[in-house]
Design brief:
The protein is α/β, with parallel strands linked by helices and 196 residues long. The chain has one domain: Alpha-Beta Barrel (TIM Barrel), CATH 3.20.20. The chain has 9 helices and 8 strands. Strands 1-2-3-4-5-6-7-8 form an 8-stranded parallel β-barrel, surrounded by 6 helices. The longest helix is centred in the N-terminal third of the chain and has 15 residues, at 38-52. GO terms for molecular function: thiamine-phosphate diphosphorylase activity. 4-amino-2-methyl-5-(diphosphooxymethyl)pyrimidine binds at residues 30-34, 62, 100, 129.
C-alpha cells in the first residue's frame, strides 16, 4: 500500500528523530542523498529501515534500485532520468515503484509501465531542491488524479497538504516541511492529521 506521508531523508538530517517521526504516523520514508557513495547509501538505508519499520513505515530509495535491493527496502522512487519504470518492475516485481510525473499523460504512461504511485510536483514553490520547474498548482493535481495514487511534493505544510488532499492527492512528500520546522515531530503530527 502506498504511504500517505513520505519524509525524505539524507545523511545530514537528524536521524535520531526517525523513530519519533514514525511513531507520529509518518508511514513512508524516502532515502535520498546524492552525495553518498553506494556503500554509504546502503548503510544509511539499512539504518533508516531498522528504526522505522518497527512502527510499520515503508522505506523507498530515490533513484537507486541496486541500493534498494541490497538494503532490503520496500521500494524505489524513479525520476525522469533514472532507470525506466518498466525495467525496475521487471527486475524487482515485489517492490513498490514510484515515478516522478508532471502531467496526467506522464501519470498514465507511468501506470502503463507498472508504477504503483506517481510523485507529482512541485505543486508549490520550494527551495529544498534547486533548478526545479515552475510550481504546477492544485489544478494540475486535480487534472492528474484518478490514474495512480499521487504523492505531491513541493512547498508543503500541514495547510497546503490538506489542500492537496482535497484536490485529489493520495498523499504528500516533504523535506523542509519536517526537517526545517523548529519541532520536526510536531510538524510530522500536523502533516499526518492533514493527510489522514
Amino acid at each position: 500500500m502506498t504511504p500517505h506521508l513520505f519524509c525524505l531523508v539524507a545523511q545530514s538530517d537528524d536521524l535520531a528523530l526517525l523513530p519519533a517521526l514514525a511513531d507520529a504516523g509518518v508511514d513512508g520514508f524516502q532515502v535520498r542523498d546524492k552525495s553518498l557513495a553506494t556503500g554509504a547509501l546502503v548503510t544509511l538505508t539499512r539504518a533508516v529501515i531498522d528504526v522505522v519499520r518497527p512502527s510499520g513505515a515503508q522505506v523507498v530509495v530515490n533513484d537507486r534500485l541496486d541500493v534498494a535491493l541490497a538494503a532490503g527496502a520496500d521500494g524505489i522512487h524513479l525520476g525522469t532520468d533514472d532507470l525506466a519504470v518498466a525495467d525496475a518492475r521487471r527486475l524487482a516485481p515485489s517492490l513498490l515503484v514510484g515515478a516522478t510525473c508532471r502531467t496526467r499523460a506522464e501519470v498514465v504512461a507511468a501506470a502503463a509501465a507498472g508504477a504503483d504511485y506517481a510523485g507529482f510536483g512541485p505543486v508549490f514553490a520550494t527551495d529544498s531542491k534547486p533548478g526545479l520547474p515552475a510550481p504546477l498548482g492544485l489544478s494540475a493535481v486535480t487534472a492528474a488524479a484518478g490514474v495512480l495514487p499521487l504523492i505531491v511534493i513541493g512547498g508543503l505544510s500541514a495547510a497546503t497538504a490538506a489542500e492537496a488532499r482535497a484536490a485529489g492527492a493520495h498523499g504528500v512528500a516533504v523535506i523542509g516541511g519536517i526537517w526545517r520546522h523548529p519541532d520536526p515531530v510536531t510538524a510530522a503530527k500536523e502533516l499526518v492529521a492533514a493527510v489522514g
